[in-house]
Amino acid sequence: MRSNRLREIWKTGGAAVNGWLAIPNSFSAETMAHQGWDTLTIDLQHGVVDYPAMVTMLQAISTTPTVPVVRVPWLEPGILMKTLDAGAYGVICPMVNTREDAQKLVAYTHYAPQGTRSFGPVRALLYSGPDYPQHANATIVTFAMIETAAALDNLDDILSVEGLDAIYIGPSDLSLALGCTPTFDDLDPKAAEAVDHILARAKAHGVVAGIHNGSTEAALKRIAKGFQFVTVSSDARLMAAGALQVMAKMRAGVAPTATSGH
Prior knowledge:
- Strands 1-2-3-4-5-6-7-8 form an eight-stranded parallel β-barrel, surrounded by seven helices.
- The protein contains 13 helices and eight strands.
- Helix 2 (26-33) runs parallel beside helix 3.
- The relative contact order is 0.13.
- It has 262 residues and is of the alpha/beta class.
- The N and C termini lie far apart (78 Å).
- The chain has helices at residues 5-11, 26-33, 51-61, 77-85, 99-108, 124-128, 132-139, 149-153, 155-159, 171-177, 189-205, 216-225, 235-253, and strands at 16-21, 39-43, 67-71, 90-93, 141-146, 166-169, 208-213, 229-232.
- The chain has one domain (5-252): TIM Barrel, CATH 3.20.20.60.
- Strand 1, helix 2 (26-33) and strand 2 form a beta-alpha-beta unit.
């Protein structure tokens, strides 16, 4: 079976740099994958990507060593299983609020006897190899998003669930839940304290901690703190920022057209 480079990075104590895909297009996904990201996450929860587009994006990522990850819309067994069947090597599940939620997530993403995942890895076999069924449980990475006040209250119970590999912090939703301004990087003090607390508890339980970032500066600081999975921006934001930079330079360099008066 094809190894999961994400697990290899974590095993050596390293941090994975994750890109975010919001554009439902295989060519843009392929272009991103060829830039050297450790992992790329296709976002099915927010934005405009649907399942058929996701499959073509997974195929595009497969042209590179980049590890394909998908954020599913919700804790629902059908979409989790279909996403893994399509060849995702990691899944990020939003709004995991209780130990029971985390147990369900692990069950839905693992074959028996560890879980209840139904068998039908139609594209996963093509991506990973014919021995996928024997090694999938030990290869796939399962992330639970910690982004609510309830999840904070139940944090240790969630982190103690066997088979949960990692948690992923959504700073904006976490900030909203705590009555703070929703943002990625410059968090209000209460939200920043919560992030530090989640990281500390994850380390104590031996669970990898990941987080969403808006800038490379924030991502590097969080790696220094101990995060081992950092997302930086997204394909849509990077495209917009690059275009804006070009246009700003062009507008500054082109003299305004004179208007004639009478």
